[in-house]
Every structure is written in C-alpha cells, then in structure tokens.
Amino acid sequence: SLTMNMYLFVYDLIQFCGHSWIFTNMIIRFMTFGKDSLADTFHSIGLVMRLCQLLSVLEILHILIGIDKSRLLPRFLQITERIIILFVVINSQEEVQGKYVVCVLFFLWNLLDVVRYTYNMLARMGIYYLPLTWLNFSLFIPLYPLSVLAKGFAICVSLPYFESFGTYSIKLPFPFTFSIYFPYVLKMYLIVLFAGMCFIIQNLFSERMAHLGTGNIKNKRS
C-alpha cells in the first residue's frame, strides 16, 4: 500500500542520513587528523552507529509482517552479527574501542549501507538507476567477506580482555556446578560467523542474479 511504501521510504531515508553522516564524518576526520583519527572513531561516532544498528532490527519486523519481501534468515544473520559485534564485543570493552579494526568495520558497514539505503529509497519510488543497481548488488562481493574477517579479528582482539576482566562470564555458587566462560562462547560464535558468511554470500549472489540477470535490470514499478 501507499502508506507502507511511504513508511519504508522514511525508514530508508533515516538510515541513509545516519550512515551518510557517519561515513562523511569518518572521511573528514581522517583527512584532517590522519591516523590519529582512527583511535577515537568509536568515541566520535559510536552513538550514531549504535542508534542506526538498533533501528535496523525493524528490518526483521518488516519481513515478518510481509512489507519487505527479502528472505528472513540471511537478513536476521546479518543484523544479529552487527549487533553482537557492536554491543557485546566493542561496546563492553573500552580497550577494543580504540583499535584500528573498529574503524575498518565502521567504514565497511557504512559504505555498504549508504549504497543499499540509497538504492532502496529510489526503488520505493520506482526509480532504478543502472550504475547504482549494479553497485548495490555487486559491492558485497569484495566488502562482505572483508567485513566478516574484520568481525572475526575484532573478536580475537577482544578475547584477552574478556579473559582478564571476566566480562559476561558467569559462575554460579555451590551447590551449582554451572558456569559460562564467555571467551569460549565467542570462540564458538566465530564458527557461526564464518558458516553464516557462506550462507549469506550464497543468498546475496542469488539476489544479484535475480536483479541483474543477464544484464537486464528488473524494472518493477512499485
């Protein structure tokens, strides 16, 4: 319906504005301060980044109620990956926040999202601009595996801090013999992360085929 289309357009616009602000901010800060800007990336743009990622949880709801025709599982995996890395790994360990990997992750995420939300906004209006469509369905080929490697690296970098501070590790007192050692949970999550990557890439390639096909752009008018 027109109302739902308008709502999705506004949602994409808000996300586009948030990610564009982060992306522009990162580039300007890097051009101004050089390498010094990388260490405090999280402190300067972390709040907007967290807001954008929390807002992206709505995309799961959009699929569940049927206003977005994307497949649920790949989208769910992509969103939860970011939420876990951003809120559980980076946000909880101040020492990790200053690492260069955070800057790399934010750069990759925002580059992908600025393109994706621009494409989505125009698609809501029935506009399919060929270079943008190609970019939207091709940029993930190099960038998504790189972002997964950066996520894995962020987890590896955070492990010593989770081990020494005991963050999220739970040890129940006697008579319970139950304990959760969080670094083990993160190591297991690494396996999930890389297994999920294969599944998501496969899905992204099938989406690319559906939209680009043999060079013909899908010209749906919504």
From TrEMBL:
The enzyme class is lyase
The principal location of this protein is: endoplasmic reticulum
Q: What is its EC number?
A: 4.2.1.134
Q: Which GO terms describe its biological process?
A: fatty acid elongation; sphingolipid biosynthetic process; very long-chain fatty acid biosynthetic process
Query: Which pathway, per its entry?
Result: Lipid metabolism; fatty acid biosynthesis
Keyword ATP-binding, does the record have it? no
Q: Which UniProt keywords apply?
A: Endoplasmic reticulum, Fatty acid biosynthesis, Fatty acid metabolism, Lipid biosynthesis, Lipid metabolism, Lyase, Membrane, Transmembrane, Transmembrane helix
Q: What is this protein called?
A: Very-long-chain (3R)-3-hydroxyacyl-CoA dehydratase
Which species?
Cardinalis cardinalis
- Lineage start: Eukaryota, Metazoa, Chordata, Craniata, Vertebrata
Q: Provide the gene name from the record.
A: Hacd4
